[in-house]
Structures are given as structure tokens and as C-alpha cells.
Amino acid sequence: TGMFTFDPGFLATASCESKITFIDGDAGQLYYRGYPIEQLAEKSDYLETCYLLMYGELPNTEQRKEFETTITRHTMVHDQITRFFNGFRRDAHPMAMMVGVVGALSAFYQDSLDIANPEHRKVAMYRLISKIPTIAAMCFRYSIGAPFMYPKNNLSYSANFMHMMFATPCEDYEPNPILVRALDRILILHADHEQNASTSTVRLAGSSGANPFACIAAGIACLWGPAHGGANEAVLKMLDEIGDESNIEEFIQGVKDKRYRLMGFGHRVYKNLDPRASIMRETCYEVLKELGLENDPKLKLAMRLEKIALEDQYFVERKLYPNVDFYSGIVLKALGIPVSMFTVIFALARTVGWISHWNEMISDPQQKIGRPRQLYTGEQRRDYVGMDQR
Ligand code: CMC
Hints:
Helices cover 55% and strands 3% of the residues. The chain contains 17 helices and three strands. The chain has helices at 37-43, 46-55, 61-73, 79-84, 94-108, 118-144, 157-166, 177-190, 197-206, 212-223, 231-242, 248-256, 275-290, 297-311, 313-317, 324-334, 342-362; strands at 21-24, 29-32, 35-36. The longest helix is centred in the middle third of the chain and has 27 residues, at 118-144. Carboxymethyl coenzyme *A is lined by residues 196, 227-229, 231, 255, 261-268, 318, 320, 323, 325. InterPro entries: Citrate_synth-like_lrg_a-sub, Citrate_synth-like_sm_a-sub, Citrate_synthase, Citrate_synthase_AS, Citrate_synthase_bac-typ, Citrate_synthase_sf, Citrate_synthase_typ-I.
């Protein structure tokens, strides 16, 4: 291929060095800063995981308290942002609003845009982690025509998000701790995943020196697609389309004929079970038990589909296993979160990963603008032809 290595889809190209997350795809292992994801999902919580991803170490008691106070202090958004929402159609997709509103944060928080200044970078990171749940919940409330709920800062990160999603001004709202824990787990499992498409997008956008809010908006845009963060939403749509267990066989045949893909299956890096999927599967059963939904027809359909696919030659040969999104969609649905919010919640969770990668890149003195090359396959030089001769 001449001067350049031709590697579409980056199947064999490392785009950077990183100390944040390690995936062993063949073994089905995932580590944040060296800690196995299973241990974090069981013993840590999302906010502590954020600290770990950002700073590289688990916080001690004092650091944890200070971090929590700081994040809590930034949860409100400027009141003008609430009015910014009014420009959207009321039936706008929440992801469409997320991309716009998060990008617009750069217009509101101009005192944290100087990326050469570590203090500005830190405040921008805190603001993003704090405000993303507030904005995500606002997207939902706006889409159903409900008033926005203020953040409640004595609640945990995930409980506060549930509060902003589901509380009403006229009633007391107590988030169910089992469901809060399940949401927190979803956030931990989605917090980072090294150089996936959206994280690479954030790095590439950031490599030009663009401000962090704009870079995160770019990441959200990339995450939106069904091959990436849109997969959990696509899983639920697929289950709706299949409708009944008796249609599974016909559906699988369509997958084999390559008419469509089995959503929530397969992964670029994991060619073995996605460790996040095993944890999510367990959480899925916990939540359904708590809510008395064990006999829910959609869940039964999902479990049957999973079993059939795991035993089918087509999927076995290609090493296609369920990924995290196969189960997270079902859990989110059970938590009462509408399907259109699924990718928004993924974006919420991944913000810390994106911003940690962005900061790692910006802090590197060797950092250069990302500028891939290409193999040109178009026309050779030719002369302009006037309109009358075409
Ligand atoms: N259903 C059916 N066949 C599949 C699937 C699937 N979900 N995924 C891959 N294949 C087949 C594909 O057709 C190809 O077969 P063949 O060798 O006969 O041409 C082979 O497996 C390899 O596929 P590929 O497209 O080269 O693999 P990739 O590494 O480029 O794709 C993927 C990875 C995640 C985009 C893909 O597996 C997929 O589209 N999955 C469904 C969407 C999904 O669940 N995405 C969530 C990923 S996890 C969360 C996240 O990271 O956002």
C-alpha cells in the first residue's frame, strides 16, 4: 500500500498510548486502571469509579468526600440552559437534544475553556460529570412535557438521577435502593472502554485543541449510532419486531441471510464472553425479581433468543456472544426508563471515560493533532469542462 498502512476501521492500528483501561478480548477481561471490572461492579460505586478513571487511583476517605462535594456543587445548570431547551420540538429524540445542549455548554461556561490551564481542565471535567445527569433527565422531562426537577444533592449520583427523571414536585419520591444499585452498575460497566469509536472521536476532536464541552458533544454524536451506543435501544426494538418465541427461528434465518444483525451480539474486541454482559445478566435477574417481572414475556423472549443464538453454528463459528447491551436494555426498561433514553444513559456513563481520555491526551507533552492519511482512489488530474460541454 505504498507509503501508508491501509487499515480501514482501525483493525490493527493503535492510535495512542493509554494508562486508563485494558481489555483482553480473547480472555474476556476488562480492567479500569488495573482493577477487574467484576470487583468494581460489586464493591465500588459509580462516583468512586469516576475518581479512579480520572486520577488513576481509588480515593481515600477524605479525597472521596471532597470529590463528592465538588461534583454535587456543580449539578445545577445555568437557568438559561433550561430556556435553551424550548427551541427543540417537543417530540425531539433525547439524543438530539443531548448533542445540542452539551455542545452549548461551551457557550455558558467560558471560564473553563482554556485547555492549556490544568485548573480550567479540572473544572470542565467536574462540570461535565456533574451536569450530564441533570441534562439527561431534562431531555427526558422535556420530551414528555413534564417540568424539570432540580437535582437533590443529598442523594447518591444514581439516586439523584432517578429523582430528576421520575420525581414530581407534588409527591415524595423514594428511589428503590435495589434499582438505584442496578443503575449504578450500568454506569460503572459503561464508564470506559478504551479506544472505542466515540472515545476515539473525542480524542480526535480534542487533538485540534477544541474545548472539552465541544469534544464531549462529538463523542455523544458518535455514540448515537446503532452499531455503538444505540445497540441497547436496537435490542428492544428487535425484541418488539420478533414479538413471540415462535418467530425466533425465522428471525435467526434472516440474520444468517445477512438481511439484518442480531443486535446486542458481537463485539470488535471481545471474541469471548463480554465480562460486562455476565455482570449485567446477573443484575438483570435481580431487578426482574425485585419488580416481580420474572415472567415478563419480553424477558422470556430475550432469554430464549440468547440460548438459541449461543448454540447456533453461525454465531459459534464467528465467536458472537451477547454483549453488555443485550442485557442493559432489558434492565433499563424494567427501571421504567423509556427506550429513547437508553443511549442517553450510555452517554451519561461514558462521559467520565471520554473526559479522562481527553485529559490524558491533552496532558501529554508529545500530543499532536490526529490526522489520518488515505489511499486516494479517485480521478486522475483532468481539465475543467465548461457547462456548455457537459
Ligand atoms: N449479528 C449477526 N452477524 C454478525 C453480528 C451480529 N450482531 N456481528 C457480527 N456478525 C458477523 C458479520 O456478518 C461477519 O460475518 P461474515 O464473516 O460471514 O461476513 C462477522 O460476524 C464479523 O463481523 P464484523 O462486522 O466484521 O465485526 P466487527 O468487529 O466489525 O463488528 C460490531 C462489531 C459490534 C459492530 C458487530 O458485532 C455488530 O454490528 N453487532 C450488533 C450491534 C451491537 O450490538 N453493538 C454493540 C456493541 S457493544 C457496545 C458498544 O461498544 O457500543
